[in-house]
Give the backbone structure.
Amino acid sequence: MKDPGSNGGPPAAEQIDRRIAELGDWRGETLGRMRQLIKAADPDIVEEWKWAKATSPGVPVWSHDGIVCTGETYKSIVKLTFAKGAALEDPSGLFNASLEGNTRRAIDIREGETINGRAFKAIVKAAAACNGKPTKTAKGGVAESGPVRLLSGGNPQIAKADGDVPVQAYIAAMPGWKSDLGRRLDAVITRSVPGVRKAVRWNSPFYGVEGLGWFLSFHVFNRYVKVTFFKGASLRPVPPGAGKDKEARWIDIHENDMFEEALMAKWVKQAAALPGWTP
């Protein structure tokens, strides 16, 4: 199948080849080996190259009706992150990272480590099959699986409700690449604020702390997802978006923007510690 270069550059397969060659060490060999297993497990997998920017070359992404997994490389690990890993069976115990969230799971591979290829391919196949199915929540509930109406800008229409289930229904209905971003946002927030309060209000997920109010919400627009911190002016560094509300700040995340997880977690932890917004 076609392997588009999502950043408008060379084809994704070529960019992944180049990244493997640039690494030039065990990380490149490991990424190349896992790539071969992914393609062997699902011949219809689509290779993509996402989130390239001035400070980052980009990340390999493998998709089939949605993102199956990403392949990130760090100084001491190669990380394979599965977008819906929490919903997958893992009898061999390959998942060893990102275990706290409701949706993602990751496999961190260090120098000298090997992965059970048969078990890994089974996870890839299950991940591809899982895309398009209802999203299971950590408590065993299932997000809405029926058709969800998309409002202006592609924003899902989800009835007002409290808890993780309506939030997962919203995320599952976010169109295209935005659904994966929603899962990643939800995972960062859940991991950064244990016991975080969740709800859907005004067709947007809201996150808060009991007794302190809401500290964050996000909303789908045509070309981006807006993440709003209700007391964002007090965060450091201050999020870039500003308007009439002197306290609120936001960041607009577009498809090819690098998702800066560490910065988002820093903002979330700060915001959760402040008195939030109470309607």
User: Anything to note?
Assistant: Residues 12-130 form a domain with the Aspartate Aminotransferase, domain 1 fold (CATH 3.90.1150).
